[in-house]
Amino acid sequence: xxxxxYIYAVACIRTKEKSLLKDADIQTISGxxxxxxxxxxxxxxxxxxxxxxxxxxxxxxxxxxxxxxxxELGVGENVIDILMFREYxxxxxxAVKQVCTDEADDPRAFxxxxxxxxxxxxxxxxxNSFEKLPPYMSKAAETAKDVMLTARDGQRCDxxxxxxxxxxxxxxxxKTRDSFLIDYAxxxxxxxxxxxAVRGCGTKKSYDFILxxxxxxxxxxxxxxxxxxxxxxxxxxxxxxxxxxxxxxxxVNESFSSFEKWCDDVMIKKIMNQKNNIQSxxxxxxxxxxRQNEIRMVRIILTAKANGFPDRxxxxxxxxxxx
Length: 323
Known about the structure:
Layout: H1 3-17, H2 23-30, H3 35-44, H4 55-72, H5 77-100, H6 118-126, H7 135-150, H8 154-176, H9 179-202, H10 207-213, H11 222-231, H12 233-241, H13 246-254, H14 256-272, H15 282-306, H16 311-317
Helix pairs in contact: 4-15, 5-6, 5-7, 5-8, 7-8, 8-9, 9-11, 9-14, 10-11, 11-12, 12-13, 13-14, 14-15, 15-16
């Protein structure tokens, strides 16, 4: 995108930002008596279409609107890829497992993607046509298939593909030379690595298992992180306390739910810095991520209301908003 394109795109985003849900809106929604009341409130705020009354339909409409913003504003395919990697690699994991096991062929298990459609991926995996995949995906796909066929190890299959996703995010962000995207990718990988270490520590995974799942990043030495996680919770917390992510140690010590909330809040703080940016793709990406965050929060609230969960459970799971 040229400077003039950025200026136009950011001007459009500033208008769209006004309709983002704020913390006060989330508090209001959380206090509504039912799923139906939440949907009505959101309809009045412009969510869904005029006749949208079901929760899943409402969320699907909003997700589609959010994705359309990127193409409407002329965001480059390389930037869109970085934002969509999680969905791309999820589809790859699902395809490998459906091809290599007796798992039912369920198209609903895939994210909708014209580039990495579930059926296309399954054909590539069945035919070993890994060269048809981009370099950041092909090796992981081949290795994951081998692991599933020889060891039936679903966990290792997941960790191989998840790590490839993180590596691709850092590599592709670096190619854009956009400081915000690079910082976003590094932060995303660092928090993902900490999550892997925390889960590995909690399930008493070996050093080798944890290290294979971790993606190298600038924030810390992943070998030292894996060693600390394999040694136990006290060692892991001590390691984290001496990094730029020291607040993670406090959150982990409180509960895993608190830690996951901390991870999400870290990313919201990152994108907040883009509110004063006018000449890069950063504000557009920040808006997209903010929309993804609010859709996720609304999904949590709708699910809680539909299942009769108390407001206390909702408040523990909602995140800080960008709006």
